Amino acid sequence: MKKTTLLMVTLLLVLIVQAQQPLYKNAKAPIEDRINDLLKRMTPVEKAGQLNQLNGGIFTGPAANDPGQQAKIEMTKQGKVGSFLNVTGANETRALQKIAVEQSRLGIPLLFAFDVIHGYKTIFPIPLAEACSWDVAQIEKDAAVAAKESAAAGLHWTFAPMCDISNDPRWGRVMEGAGEDPYYGSVVAAARVKGLQGNLNDAEHIMACVKHFAAYGAVQGGREYNTVDVSRVALWNKYLPPYEAGVNAGAATVMNAFNIFDGVPASGNKYLVHDILEMKWGFKGFVVSDWNSFDEMITHGYAANRKDAAYKALSAGSMMDMESKVVVDYLPELLKEKKISMQQVDDDVRRILYFKFKLGLFDDPYKFSDAAREKATEFTETHRNEARKAADASIVLLKNDNNVLPIDAKANPSIALIGYYAKSKADLFDFWIANGKSDDAVSIFEGMKEKYAQSNIVYSDGYLPDGNSNEQLINEAVAATKNAAVIVVNIGLSGKLAGEDRSLANPAIADGQVALLKALHATGKPVVALVSAGRPLVLTAIQHYVDAIVYSWILGTETGHAVADVLCGDYNPSGKTVMSFPYAVGQIPVYYDYFNTGRPLPDSGDQSWKSRYRDIPNAPLYPFGFGLSYTNFSYSNVALNSHVIAKGSPLQVTVQLTNTGSKAGYEVAQLYIRQITASIVQPVKALKAFQRVYLQPGKTKVLYFTLTDKDFAFYDGEGNVHVEPGAFKVFVGGNSRDVLEKDFVLK
Fold this sequence. Notes:
Layout: H1 2-20, H2 31-41, H3 44-50, E1 52-55, H4 67-77, E2 83-85, H5 90-103, E3 111-114, H6 127-131, H7 136-152, E4 157-158, H8 182-197, E5 209-213, H9 232-248, E6 253-256, E7 260-261, E8 264-265, H10 270-280, E9 286-288, H11 296-300, H12 306-316, E10 321-322, H13 326-336, H14 342-358, H15 371-377, H16 381-394, E11 396-400, E12 414-418, H17 444-451, E13 456-460, H18 471-480, E14 486-492, H19 511-521, E15 527-532, E16 548-551, H20 559-568, E17 633-640, E18 644-645, E19 651-659, E20 665-675, E21 686-695, E22 700-707, H21 709-712, E23 714-715, E24 721-722, E25 726-733, E26 739-746
Parallel strand pairs: 1-2, 1-10, 2-3, 3-4, 5-6, 6-9, 12-13, 12-14, 14-15, 15-16, 18-26
Antiparallel strand pairs: 7-8, 11-16, 17-19, 19-22, 20-21, 20-25, 23-24, 25-26
Helix pairs in contact: 2-14, 3-13, 7-8, 7-15, 7-16, 8-9, 12-13, 16-20, 17-20, 18-19
């Protein structure tokens, strides 16, 4: 009897507690009901706080006593902060989350965000290099590893993937994207979102952020933060598809771009944020500014002051304010003046709260901040193995005269390795390395010493840390090659010159490095150029002085291992370019999906009064989709299921792919189309499909591609889809230049 009475009392107490507990704290209630309950309890100041993201820093130890940090802590207690960026580590995030949850009035948890662009602790190849693998499954897996390490460090959110299409290697941020093609960029964007987010129902994935919306890759002159001025036709057909693919893949957030579009800054651009993102695409996540971009509308000349900037950003549909503080400072006032409605604010705040509930932060605010899991998860052997696989597949072989590669250790007992960057770990990484450490990485020198353990690796700097050289360094490099059978020269750019605020007017090989190659070429020994850079460089000046060119980009933690894997032939290079490599700087921007013009340059014959340069070719040095292998592939017997198809009917394209060489390897078969005549002029080629195929020597495989109306469609300037009848060409091959073609008609 006593036990029964005690049980009933206990049950009664539980019911009383539950009745007194706010609905938003009831883990069993539907998320929407919890959000509605919380919104009713929030003041205008607290709602403005959810739209405020601050730059964090350190909140434990002596650093927490800094006046600036104390001010942020006080704002957190007052409910004036919804998110912090640049607070990392389980202990740091837990400490700050504890303040938000236990010392603010409503205990709303914070979102912690960080730029995890290509890995958190284990650093993968830069996204541009990774895209050159054309291995979508690996790209998704790489993102999942980055998310797992980030989540273990207390993070909920990263500002990736960058979905900006760019034709301009002068722009330092091309390293963050997937290149120049909207179709392939869309495939990669979706894979990265899926890898980062999973289903957002565990502590191993984080929110993705599609950026920079929109068209930031078209900055004039390739200069960071510069103006964008493109037509709406170009916007819809060239630049928007990857953003839409990321949104359709479920991206939780989208970031405003820094640039203007149609003369209006992206942060205050209603056409971009409201009309396209929210209305046309039905985006249900939330929009975050780029760093201070709300406030920068004043400098643009669009907003009169900080209050006006807050008004115009929110009126356009932008939501969370990164670091400029205009929303938290002025939203209560704008509400009081009825310039912004409470309904709109509630809708904005609702979206942010939804993901806090979705991530489970109201029920377990510290589920991501687990120091033991952080230690066990970061930089594991499994993650490093994935980074090595990704790096192997990202390397692009651009030239291999006389099959100088691969380098057989037995046949080459002495190898000269020239190049300061080959040893310098400080130059190995780019700007976006999250919490990666260059000292943890494998240098090219280390990778080659390990791989060629039985060979004598003779090293010389060859050039200075800034990439330039002098007579003494060149002479020392030549002397180092005295007994070498082959010379490997690591040239290019320091990783420090890749990323944001790293635009270059002349993305080319430094004159001193060209002089170095010229001197090494004069030795009569085979010269292999190993090019490190975060962008395509102009390589025309070195062509005569090298037998092979291996483009190794910026490969991350496993750089040295991957480079050695390819040089020795343990990995048969399979990467294909995703940006065209310019013949000269004056060509930039140069890209494969150009328009024909009224006076296209003929392949031969009289070229007078045609669209051309007098001093260089029109074509890039290396086209989009190009990459060699240690074996050879041939394409034959392209066939269509019909040469006349009706709208709504699929077109099936088949082609025979044969490995005609002596080694097994991957080939990326690419399919392009061209519509000959349309109401809006179409590019000379547009990628519509690809397959990454592994073939043994002598083997043939028939590849099947199916095209539908979606592949034949294009947009007008208002985003309306058109599928128009007419003549088409379909092209299949190993790159955008070297293709077989067939004609068909869409009726």
